[in-house]
Amino acid sequence: MTFTRAHYEETADVIRSKTDLRPKVALVLGSGLSGLADSVTDAVSIPYEELPHWPTATVHGHAGRLVIGRIEDQPVLVMQGRAHFYEGYSMAEITLPVRVFHVFGIETLILTNAAGGINQKFKPGDLMLITDHIGLVEMTGINPLLGPNDDSIGPRFPDMTHPYDSELCALAHAIAADLNYSLHEGTYLHLSGPAFETPAEIRFFHMMGADAVGMSTVPSVMVARHAGMRVLGISSITNVHTLSPSAETETNHEEVLEIGRMIVPRLTALLRGILRQI
Ligand code: HPA
Question: CA 136 to CA 210: how far, in whole Å?
Answer without folding.
Answer: 11
